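SAMPLE LOG
Freezer: B-3
Tube label: C17
Construct: single chain, 319 aa
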Amino acid sequence: MISVFYGKNDFGIDMEINKIRLSVAPEEVRDVNSVHLNGDSMTKSDFLSSVFTVPFMSNKRVVIISNFITKLNSKKNLDASEWVDLLEKLDEVPPTTDLLFREADLDKNNYLFKKISESHDSRNFPLLRPYELKEWIKDRVAGMGMTIESGAVNLMVDFIGSDLRTIDSELKKLSLYSEHGVITVDDIQIMVAYVKDQSIFKLVDFAIEGKNEEALKISQILLDYGSSPNMIVRMIQRQLRLLLLASDLRKRHVKVSEFSQRLAISGYPLQKTLEMEKRFEFSRLLKIYGLILKSDIRVRSGLMSDSSALDLLIAEMSS
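STRUCTURE (predicted):
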């Protein structure tokens, strides 16, 4: 079997690949008969030795190749490389090998992709839409032998979005924590620390985009979780500072690979900061940073309570 799995839903691809790996029997030799190759560095020798090797004491072996088809994006590139006879070799793949090509975003006009898709399986794994995401969460929880309140489902979708890997991780934690086999809104509020981290990005996003009502809603949820108005302002200030610094680094043509060290953040916070920075003008970010300083003066001088100052700041950011 030869398949091409592609799309932005990398967790969905992981699950499908894992399902195929589980069909390798017996379990004791599953890892030995599973091979992962990086398409960027894979040689033809690596490919041939992995794909055409006889399974070790098993019914089959699984070979997973990542980011290979994207690299050979045209017939010219294919013909000019050591892979000129690749399509012929694919026709010779033994039935005891499941060959899986894994790609992120794939251009459907890619020559190699089109040729493979003509005679083999190809599946797109897009990000789930909101209603699909809610059903996915319910099904995932049911698979754990539990149920989940509708409000809890909505809360996870609102704040975690389509990141299935994070949702799955949090659901596993909640399944251990929740009593009586039901995940409730209260469980989400207590256990899902990710909600707070995600909330501040959404709050800043909504405010800068002029969505005052949505930004105020996020602010209220953070307050309900125990954050003080002053703490929320400090989180907004920190995020604006990171956006300004990221914008400055980009203007100075600093390598993206250096951003993590320069900004002292990594992982999801870095990813979200870089995504947001691209969408907003430096002058707008600078103006909002000035509004934060003015809000701080109002509170310190006793002109306004910290909660009222927070609401006004969000309104000013959204205007």
